[in-house]
Amino acid sequence: QVQLVESGGGLVQPGGSLRLSCEASGFSFSRYAMSWVRQAPGKGLEWVSAISESESTSYRDSVKGRFTISRDNGLNTLYLQMNTLKPEDTAEYYCATHKTGGWTSGIQYWGKGTLVTASS
């Protein structure tokens, strides 16, 4: 049974930091590209960052230099280090597994999300 379980969300003041984790099970984690996707209140899904099987990374422009995606294949865990958080980063953050073929392929698995709120 495939599971993606996110953790690490919470309330933080603007300028603060959080580290999200996503524990994967039920599939060969190291063989797939992974992404973080977010959904702000009342808005649609927005891709945030991706990491390939070979640990190449990609970010949306608005988080470049502030967020860092990483993975630990030995622990089957995906991470997102978020620094200098802004109110516009407030969203539910989802961990997602891409289909075979890298991060340009579609998503095959989704986690249930963890809420990040950047507010004073």
Report on the structure:
0% of the residues lie in helices and 51% in strands. The chain has 120 residues and is mainly beta. Strands 2, 4, 5, 6, 9, 10 and 11 form a seven-stranded mixed β-sheet that branches. A four-stranded antiparallel β-sheet has the order 1-3-8-7, with no helix packed on it. It starts with a strand and ends with a strand. The model has no long low-confidence stretch (mean pLDDT 97).
Annotation keywords:
4-stranded antiparallel sheet
Q: Give the overall form.
A: globular
Low confidence ranges: none
Report how far apart the termini are: 40 Å
Classify the beta-strand content into a percent band. over 45%
What's the story with the biggest beta sheet? Answer: 7 strands, mixed
- SSE pattern, N- to C-terminal: EEEEEEEEEEE
What structural class results from the helix and strand content?
mainly beta
Quantity of strands, as a count: 11
